[in-house]
Design a protein that fits this description.
Layout (H helix, E strand, L loop, with lengths): L5 E4 L2 H23 L2 E5 L6 H7 L2 H4 L7 E5 L1 E3 L9 H8 L11 E2 L8 H16 L8 E4 L24 E4 L10 E4 L1 H4 L4 E6 L5 H9 L14 E7 L11
Parallel strand pairs: 1-10, 2-3, 2-6, 3-5, 6-9, 9-10
Antiparallel strand pairs: 4-8, 7-8
Helix pairs in contact: 1-2
Length: about 240
C-alpha cells in the first residue's frame, strides 16, 4: 500500500488526545452539514483512554451528543455487565458520562437464543436506522490484534469473503477472550466515510507492517470504497524504540 495516511505518537496519551480532538472536529462538521453523526465504536484496550477523554468535562461540552448515534463494530457474546463486554467498557468510560438516550445506542442483543439470531437482529437494527439511505457510517473506529485481526474478523476465517451480510457471527480467534462474537463484515466497514485505526504496543508492530503493506491479514483488507483510511499509531507499534528504552 502506498501513500499511507498515518500519524505516529510517542505514547497512548498523546495518541488519545489527538484522536479526541480529531473526533470533536469531525462530529461538529458532520452535524453542521447533515444534522447528525454515526459513530462505530471499537472494543479492546486501546480506545478506552479515548472514550474516557471524550466523556471528560473538557471534551463532553464540545460535542452535541444528542445528535450522535453509536454502533459497535463487534461484540463478545456475553452479558452486557460482563468485564469482557465491549458495551460494558464503553458504557463505563463514555456513555455514563454524557447526555444521551438509550435510543441513540445500537448494539447486539447478546441474550438472544443463538449467535446467528443475534447477528441477524443487529443487522436489522442497522438497516432500519438507515431506512432507504445508503448504509454509510461517518466514522468507524478499529483496532488491530497482534495476529492481524480487526473487529472480530480473524485470519483464515471464511467470513473475510462475505459479500452480502452486514453482520455475522463468528467463533473466537487465537487471542483471548475465548468467547463467540458478532462482527461487522468487510463490505460494511469499507463503506464508511472515515475508517480510523488506533494501534498501540510493540506486539502489534509486525501485524501493522502486514496490514499497511499487503493483504495477508484481515486488517489489510480494510480499504474504504469511497472514504478515508487513517492510522493513528504509537512509536512502539512502529518499532521505534523510546529514548529511555
Amino acid at each position: 500500500m502506498t501513500n499511507i495516511n498515518e500519524k505516529v505518537f510517542s505514547d497512548l496519551d498523546k495518541l488519545s488526545s489527538y484522536a479526541a480532538n480529531f473526533i470533536v472536529d469531525l462530529v461538529t462538521k458532520n452535524i453542521n452539514e447533515n444534522g447528525y453523526f454515526t459513530f462505530v465504536l471499537a472494543g479492546g484496550s486501546t480506545p478506552k483512554k479515548l472514550y474516557e477523554l471524550l466523556g471528560s468535562r473538557n471534551y463532553t461540552k464540545l460535542i452535541d451528543w444528542e445528535k450522535v448515534y453509536f454502533f459497535f463494530g463487534d461484540e463478545r457474546l456475553v452479558p452486557k455487565s460482563d468485564i469482557v463486554s465491549n458495551f460494558n467498557m464503553v458504557h463505563t468510560a463514555l456513555f455514563s458520562k454524557i447526555n444521551i438516550q438509550p435510543s441513540q445506542i445500537f448494539s447486539p442483543q447478546t441474550d438472544l437464543l443463538s449467535e446467528e439470531t443475534i447477528a441477524l437482529s443487529y443487522e436489522g437494527k442497522i438497516r432500519r436506522f438507515f431506512k432507504n439511505k445508503p448504509i454509510k457510517f461517518d466514522l468507524t473506529l478499529l483496532g488491530l490484534g497482534s495476529d492481524g485481526h480487526t473487529a472480530s474478523l480473524f485470519p483464515g476465517n471464511k467470513l473475510l469473503k462475505e459479500k452480502n451480510r452486514l453482520v455475522v457471527s463468528t467463533k473466537p480467534g487465537v487471542l483471548p477472550p475465548n468467547v463467540d462474537r458478532v462482527t461487522f463484515t468487510l463490505p460494511l466497514i469499507n463503506n464508511s466515510k472515515v475508517v480510523l485505526f488506533l494501534v498501540t504496543g510493540g506486539d502489534k508492530s509486525e501485524a501493522l507492517k502486514l496490514a499497511q503493506n499487503n493483504k495477508s491479514v484481515p486488517a489489510g483488507l480494510v480499504h474504504p470504497s469511497s472514504g478515508q483510511l487513517l492510522w493513528f499509531v504509537d512509536g512502539a507499534a512502529k518499532g521505534i524504540k523510546s529514548r529511555n528504552g
